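User: I'm new to structure prediction. If I give you an amino acid sequence, what do you actually give back? Let's try with this one:
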Amino acid sequence: MITIKEIADIVGVSTTTVSNVIHGKTKKVSSDNIERIQKVIREKKYIPRMGLSSLTNKQSHIIGVVIHITKEYENTILSDPFYGQIVGYLETYIREAGYYMMLYTSKDLNDIFKMAAAWNVDGLVAITFTYNNYQKIRSLTEKPIVAIDLYNESDDDYINVGLDDEGGGYQMTRYLIENGFEKILLLASQDIGVDHHRFIGYQRALKEYDIPYNEKYYIRLGNDPQKRASKFNDLLKYTKKNYAMFFLSDLLAVEGMRYFIDHGVSIPNDLSIAGFDDNLYAQLLSPQLSSVHQDVSLKAKITIETLMKIINDEPLEQTHISLPVHLAIRGTIKTISRSQPNRSELDKSKKNL
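Assistant: Good question. You get back a string of structure tokens that encode the predicted 3D arrangement of the chain. For your 353 residues, that looks like this:
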């Protein structure tokens, strides 16, 4: 295996410069030298020796990723495409930064706190944490920490990479209304976290189009897959009646579609369905699922870039990052005739008066 000295000789720099690039200390290294050193590292497949540093108080070159599990899964949390993707992308960007990843997932927050406090890591990524639990793990570890999809914020002293969840809920609801739907069921696991923000966006779109919010149309499916089946059975009464169902995750939408199709429902002829996330499942379905697209790779990339800046004492331009979303419209939504003019038509009429 190539050594740091050999890399330094190839590039024509000191071993200290090579070591600084490997360990992310690049403040005083030119961009040209960084690029040349990283090119040699990739081509020669250099692997840092981490054993000694990880057993001392020096940098371990390990990033911890902890996920608080808030749902029940038939298999594991990584069977959820979102979590599978985010973990995979995080590992890629952590490795590219010259670090290693340690992963721990649990429904028990105390287990997460104990594990994170015991790790000798240079930084942490906390996924699906409330503001209070984020603050607790930060105080326990005293390490740089970046959250992904933090919720229940009560102050500004946090660093989070999230999504325009409210905007996504608004955009899809508006699209359904524009396609003639006034009866739109909203289906979520529970009314917390990102689901709550998506619900607010749903309400905003209804209000904009003067459609009264109907509480019975907001359906909490819960976290138990077996209990959800009975709820899907109850939802069969809404088929063939010009209803649309907006699921606040693709995983729920896929589960619902499977149930409905198995019970003779034709999608979108008997029922229009939309999801949120635009993951791989959405594109493998037949028909393909219309969904709100989020860029999971970008979310992971910005998370690690932000964490590296904190570790390297570099200034942050933003601490509360909200990434944009857009609609991915496919084959699960039909257009129906409207019983009344839409908002844009009403606005045009007012101008002509």
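You can read the tokens as a compact description of the fold. Here is one thing that stands out. Residues 51-57, 348-353 have pLDDT under 50 and may be disordered.
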